[in-house]
Amino acid sequence: MPVVIPDGQEDTWLLTSGADELRSLESLLLPWQPAGWEAVPEDWS
Fold it and tell me: pLDDT digits over 21-40, tens only?
């Protein structure tokens, strides 16, 4: 499953950590609401 990792969280995501540190990243794996997002087609010409 692909995961979007916010800027600045890459190191935290990749480090071997204890349960507390991993639990703080758990929200990145939860479902999200795409209502505020907009898909804009790219102009490749």
Answer: 777 778 777 887 888 888 88
